[in-house]
């Protein structure tokens, strides 16, 4: 199982940062490998994810929320599909910003051991998450509350 952990400070109120993250349909706007997220339940506690995986393979799975504490934390686990993933994100309000801390874990990369080795060779998961979080920060600081899905 691979694991990656990163944090970023976002100059926006915690409630706006949490709400933007909690609307999983926003993920394709800032996560490079996320192609589509579709909510499967009205409350958004189950969603279907389509990702671009290593070696051009498509990755699909359903995810269930395991934790949802408004303005504090979100956790998830995948169900079914061709990858196993879990993680959580915490939101800590400071004076003029929100600290976003993400932990992601995954196993069973498409292509088995070869796919997992290729994903490590060609994609640095920590660097990818860092870039995704930077895009999230740019959007949250510049456009949260101005028409993006919340």
Please render the helix and strand layout as text.
Layout: E1 2-10, H1 14-22, E2 34-39, E3 46-52, E4 58-69, E5 73-79, E6 84-93, E7 98-107, H2 112-122, H3 125-143
Antiparallel strand pairs: 1-7, 2-3, 3-4, 4-5, 5-6, 6-7
Count of helical regions: 3
Strand content is 35-45%
What is the element string, with H for helices and E for strands? EHEEEEEEHH
Strand order of the largest sheet: 1-7-6-5-4-3-2
Can you name the CATH architecture?
2-Layer Sandwich
Q: What is the mean pLDDT? A: 86
Profile the largest sheet: 7 strands, antiparallel
Q: Total domains, how many?
A: 1
Structural category is: alpha+beta
Query: What is the class in the CATH system?
Result: Alpha Beta
**How many angstroms separate the termini?**
32 Å
Describe, in plain words, how this protein is organized in 3D.
This protein is 26% helix and 41% strand. The protein is α+β, with helices and mostly antiparallel strands and 150 residues long. It has one domain (2-143): START domain (Alpha-D-Glucose-1,6-Bisphosphate, Chain A, domain 4), CATH 3.30.530. The chain has a seven-stranded antiparallel sheet with strand order 1-7-6-5-4-3-2, covered by helices on one side. The protein is globular. Mean pLDDT is 86; it is low at 117-122 and 144-150.
């Amino acid at each position: 199982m691979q694991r990656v952990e990163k944090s970023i400070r976002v100059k926006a109120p915690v409630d706006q940062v949490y709400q933007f993250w909690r609307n999983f349909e926003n993920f394709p706007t800032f996560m490079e490998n996320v192609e589509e997220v579709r909510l499967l339940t009205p409350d958004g506690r189950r969603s279907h994810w389509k990702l671009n995986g290593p070696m051009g393979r498509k990755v699909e799975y359903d995810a269930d929320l395991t934790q949802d504490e408004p303005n504090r934390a979100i956790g998830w686990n995948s169900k079914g599909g061709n990858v196993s993933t879990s993680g959580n994100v915490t939101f800590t309000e400071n004076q003029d910003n929100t600290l976003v801390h993400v932990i992601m874990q995954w196993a069973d990369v498409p292509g088995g051991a070869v796919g997992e080795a290729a994903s490590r060779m060609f994609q640095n998961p920590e660097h990818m998450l860092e870039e995704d979080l930077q895009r999230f920060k740019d959007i949250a600081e510049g456009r949260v509350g101005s028409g993006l899905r919340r």
